Amino acid sequence: MSDDNTTTKTTVADDAKTTATETGQTIYLGPQILQKGLLSGQVFIGGVPEHIKEYIASKPLMSQLFVPVSQIVAAQQAVNTPGTPQYIAYHNALGGK
User: Fold this and answer.
1) Hey, how many other C-beta atoms are within 10 angstroms of the C-beta on 9?
2) How far does the chain reach from its first CA to its final CA, in angstroms?
C-alpha cells in the first residue's frame, strides 16, 4: 500500500513539474531561499520568473517543489513523506541555501 501512495505522489509531482513552471498558478513548497527570492508558500501566477527557471535548471531537484496550486495537498504530503523525491528535494534545498 505504501508503494502505491509513493508512486501516486511521485506521479502527481512528475506530471505537475512539467507544467507548473510554464503556466497557471504555481506554488513553491520548499524552504525560504532569500538569495533567489523564494519564500515558502509563494504563489506565481502565469508561470515562474525566468531567473527562477534558470535556478531550477541548475538544480533539477528543485523542480519537485514547484507544483500547480490545484495539487498542493498531494504535493505537501509528498514533501512531508520521507523517501519521496519532494522530501529529498526539500531537505537538499535546506542544505543548499
Assistant:
1) 21
2) 35
Decide if 44 contacts 28 (C-beta within 8 A). yes
DSSP secondary structure code for residue 26 in this structure: E
Write down the pTM of the prediction. 0.74
For the chain, the 3-state helix, strand and coil shares in percent, each to the nearest 5, are 60, 10, 25
Query: Are 25 and 97 contacting, i.e. CB atoms less than 8 angstroms apart?
Result: no
Instruction: Give burial (CB, 10 Å; 0-12/13-18/19+) of 29.
Output: buried
Strands (E), the chain: 25-28, 43-45, 66-68
Q: List, in sequence order, every residue forming a beta bridge with 38; answer none if it has no partner.
A: 33
Report helix angle 2-20 to 72-79, nearest 10. Answer: 120
What residue has cell string 504535493?
75
Q: What is the pLDDT of residues 35-93, one digit of tens each?
A: 999 999 999 999 899 999 999 999 999 999 999 999 999 999 999 999 999 999 999 99
